Amino acid sequence: MSIFKALQKRQSEEQQQFTEAEKQAPASVVTFEKAARRVNTTPELFLNDAVKIGAPTTNAAAKNAETATSTALAFNGQKTDSLIGKALPDLELNKTAGATLNAVVAVNPARSASEKHSCDFTVWNVEAERVEPRLVAITEPNSNYCEEYRSLRTQILHKSQREKLQSIVVASVNQSEGKSVTALNLSWMMAQTDGVRALVIDSDLRMPSLSDYLGIETDKGLSDILAGRATLLESIIRLEPAGLHILPGGEARSDVAELLSGPRFKEILREACDMFDYIIIDAPPLGIFTDATVLINQADGAMLVVRAGHTRYASLDRVLEQLPRERMLGVVLNQSEDVLDEANYNYGYYNSSRRIKN
Known about the structure:
The protein is of the alpha/beta class and 358 residues long. Helices cover 31% and strands 13% of the residues. It has 12 helices and 11 strands. A hairpin with a 3-residue loop joins strand 6 and strand 7.
């Protein structure tokens, strides 16, 4: 049985279990932003190809060339040597993220009753015009692009009501497929959910990039904690106005696999789980390093980001065969020109002319 057929079988079994549980259990209410919401999709997004990130086709390429991402899940009936999806063309992008610092350092005095721990973190006020344009959760919160991140968030929250899903790894097969952008957009949306404390961790320690995308300046991070030069509490930064917390990567290192495999990272993750409701972990590419595999085996779940017209089915299948199936949530498809039937949306994000470090 191929990995895709196995994933489809798992989807069918989970959907049946969810339907039975839904009939027996009272409905759980999760608060989300009301602005610009479409009717919610099926609670089981993962391994379902019905939900994809999109934007109106009219003048979308010219007007929103710097934004958009898409979610699409599971593939079947495809030749293994063919490319996944049809990609949008590369377009010139004149904006450079992180060129100007966009925050004022402060100490956060306010803490809600829902916080698991009372902590004072360094705070950076993030301004939309200063960040990486593809961070649509910040730059275009009312756009159709952002709506699909809300949908993705909704599915994760629903799934976490049925099983433990606190720490989630966002990985990719190759470089430059959009995993870091996906991790930041998703975690930003999670942090905006009422009563949810979210942390995003930059664990791509060979090439940490999340701070650059956000345009923030950091002097401590995960690598410093692993090396014993800093603590978790003094390394975490709170990002306003969303209230998202971030653990930057810190100083770039080459001995990443050894550091992440050691007991110290497990302690860091356990401590973070005591402090936050959801932890999104931006991991290195699976097709290049073993770091992401180590992370996935320590987390509750994982999703893969692939790029339309760039990633081959054979590469995805090969990577999935090496991963624990019980932890795989689905696949996020980026830079696709496919169209949503119900809304006539183009989706995908256009390439930046600058080198993207993810």
